[in-house]
Amino acid sequence: MKEKIWKIREGDDIKVATIRSEMALSPIIARLLVNRGIDTKEAVYDYYNATTESFHDPFMMTDMKMAVKRILRSRDQEEKIMIYGDYDVDGVTSTSILYMFLEEIGCLVDYYIPDRHEEGYGINIEALTEVKDRGFKLLISVDTGITAVKEVAYSNEIGLDVIITDHHECQDVLPSGVAVLNPKREGDRYPFKMLAGVGVTFKLIQALARTTDVENKIWKYLDLVAVGTIADIVPIYGENRTITKLAFQSMPTTWNKGLEALMKVSDLEGKKMTAGRIGFGIGPRLNAAGRIKHAKEAVELFILNDTSKCMTIAEGLDQDNKNRQSLEKRIFEEAVALIEASSNPPNQKVIVVASDSWHHGVIGIVASKLVEKYYRPIIILTIKDGVASGSARSVEGFNLYLALKANGHLFDKFGGHEMAAGMSLQENNIEALEKGLNLYADEHMEKDVLIPKLKVDMVMKLEDIGLELIEDIQKMEPFGMGNPEPTFICEGPIHHMKKIGKDQTHLSLELGVDPKIRGVGFSLGEVTEWIDDGQLVQCVCSLEINEWNQRKSPQMMVKDIRHTTATLKEIKNQILEHSVIDYFEDFEVHHEDRLSRQMLSDFYRFLMQKDSVLDHEIYFTKLMAQLDIKQTQDLKKYLMMLEVFSELELIQYEIKGLSMTFSLNKGKKVDLQDSKLYNKFL
């Protein structure tokens, strides 16, 4: 488990006091709001009171009037409109809502989503030719197209008008379409820049609805807008918070038969909706369509109005998702093997890994898992016919898009944003890309970027945790990037630690004495290797309500655990003192530092017991618990005993951080009197 930096958010105390007074908030809730930039009376009101009136005027977006005018001209002249969408959840939901709305207002409309495996990402010339040959006069891209300069130029040549709607970063030159809708355009007046692709599509729908006087009919689409917004991991503040907050109220009884079926197979029917349930339940099943087969199945799921057919599609997506998980596991294991064999991850700031045997549809997910494992930017590529295409994921603090742009000459095409991107390039450019990205990282990556960080809102006393507080925190939902779930540092003695779960990788615990609070830590089972019951620890956790047998109680969802800062500092000091001792020089030995033959014998038997079960790594905190070492300063005796054993060639050991590894020379007979260090401490 990687050591993490805990960073406590620094809120403005004056602002906390002000909004606490003005809005009658508890001090904890006031602090949490200020930490999220909600620091005025008006901002607090908007945060808690999202309505359809909270949306910005869509016509503030550059080119919106031209887009609306061109679409309505197609409707009035009965021209066929083609929606060109991306194959991820954002693209699928964008395609679906625009298709349904245009059909609702009387347009002749169809949709086209490129095959992920045959056509790849973005608008392509072959597809444009096909669309034109089928008699379409207007193409509207959703969640894609902002970098399609050559493709749109070709479309203009063949007489196919193009409207671009996208949210990805803009390059220096924009496509020459009829309209280019993207709030990130330079000089764009639209006040909220962080919409997902489906959010930009919804703004186009809103503008069309206002113009045709049917705005009251569009709010039902927010269910699908929220799904795409959450799945694309955009910040959940501003208009994105309005979208998700309103949608989460209606989703348990959604009007959309496809979404209803998907919620059934995801075991979410009738349940309270959260960003996590979309991100881990609905999103992966929708993505499985484009990853394993074709994303048009996901679009059909949403635009059909037939319960039976929707259920059949949803069940198919559920099976596709299971197949995807199996495929993903194999590719992840192969990628790890390649990385470990070919490079030294700790010294390489950006990792590029490629193979000709990987399924293109799942490598983006694998990239995210590799980032979790190595905590550094990852590019994973699959090679076919000399062309490498793939996905990239970054870590906080390293702008992936700018890094790719600096190496843009190596790509056939690329696109994305700060944290994620997609690209294609010639196979013979892979090595140059890895070198170029690492040179860029050497110049632009801050020193601590590659150390995982946990952002914490505040230190919380256990006695302050109660049901009322947790209920107040739940009113801050929906959580997500930009509006993170509140996290706290709690301190107390740890009890009843137990590994749980099918693979024993998770942790159950209790913290404190009176009060004591139960906690669960996912993927924290290995904590038992260096922490023992009864020790004083600090936890980073979020809070939730546990309901069991009609009783409610507070529960911690633990993100990380460590010994208290004071304990760790004392242990480090003991190790440091030990490392500079030269026992051949004169130094004063205090009475409390004396060693005895019995102490050495007991400690050696302890090490032999560890050795017998092949446990050759010991954390000093765990050693203190197992040997009942009450005071940290007593640890130095055991460090001295290790040195005595080493001097007598009974053991080889190495201290690494807060742990040591060792191996015993079994069967060796020695006399303690032969140790100069033992004689000095006798």
Automatic annotation (TrEMBL):
Residues 80-229 form the DDH domain. Residues 347-437 form the DHHA1 domain. GO terms for biological process: DNA recombination; DNA repair. The keyword Nuclease applies. Gene3D superfamilies: 3.10.310.30, 3.90.1640.30. Keywords: Exonuclease, Hydrolase, Nuclease. InterPro entries: DDH_dom, DHH_sf, DHHA1_dom, RecJ, RecJ_OB, SSDNA_exonuclease_RecJ. Signal peptide: none annotated. Residues 456-560 form the RecJ OB domain. GO terms for molecular function: 5'-3' exonuclease activity; nucleic acid binding. PANTHER family: SINGLE-STRANDED-DNA-SPECIFIC EXONUCLEASE RECJ. Belongs to the RecJ family. This is Single-stranded-DNA-specific exonuclease RecJ. It comes from Petrocella atlantisensis. The gene is recJ.
